[in-house]
Amino acid sequence: MVVHHKQQSQSSDFRKREIRLLLERVKNILGKNYYCYEIINYPSSYRERSIDVVAVKDKDKLLLRIRLSIKNLHKDEINDLINAASAIDAVPLVLSDDVIYDNVVCERDNIYLISDKTLNNILRRSSDVFIIHKKNNFFVRINSKKLEKIKEDMGLSLGDLASYAGVSRRAVFDYLRSDSNVSLEVAERLIELLGEDIIEPVTIESLKTSFTRVIPEGSVRYERKLLDILGVDDDEVLIYKINRSAPDYVVVSKDSYEISFVVGGDLGKLSVKDLVKKILETEKLVRVIPSDIKAVIDRSLRDVILDELSVHKLDLNRISVLESR
Question: Which one is the CATH code of 2-125: 1.20.140, 1.10.10, 3.40.1350, 1.10.3470?
Fold first, then answer.
């Protein structure tokens, strides 16, 4: 029993060390590519988290989860990444050494799984990353403008391209209309005829375009209570539920697209210390995402929470404190 416990402890220490090393590599990559980023350390247990890093550069926003293994991604991890990315217009990424291929983006369940090497090459816009792996197939992105120009320069018709690529005229028409992901087999035929210039490397912009943003369905009971606390109607905002990170909700105004990170959740299960920690970690998001924080606090805890936050020298002007009802 003692030996077994010692082995478990050593295994846990090894995992923690490997995660720290991977996180350090990711931080170096983001810094080297001029991204501002924040590390989100909530919940305290790494295994219970869904978002580890938020990174921003100009209009590009990344939400990253750092994992040693991609085999057992929890449904809440995936849903949180998708919901948060949809709310703030970001790209959801899972970083792991466990991915099968370097310089290939694996798309699964509407999120992207990549290695740190692939992340670095994408951020520096390297031509090395041009293949997407999705549903056991490989795809290559074709640049529509270059395809159109080379087609015209070579005097090829729509039918010529369709016949050579082995696809319909309608498919070729779609390739010419906008950048498209085509199967590796079709891409190889087009490259053989037209050259490699038609290939478009994978970029953050192309991943954002391919990402399917979700729209929350009508408010459920707990969201209707939140709407009442926030003083807004159902048709004024979109509410995205977050289960395993510092904010409990991301609320987006439909008209102005203003973003609010809401902290509160089930206050009956949170200590004052935990609630303060949630607010402090949520404040990191506000540093890089234009937004505010709305903290839903029981009236009896309001002064205690505000005193604790002031000790941490938090700018209380960025936080609206709302009383739970």
Answer: 3.40.1350
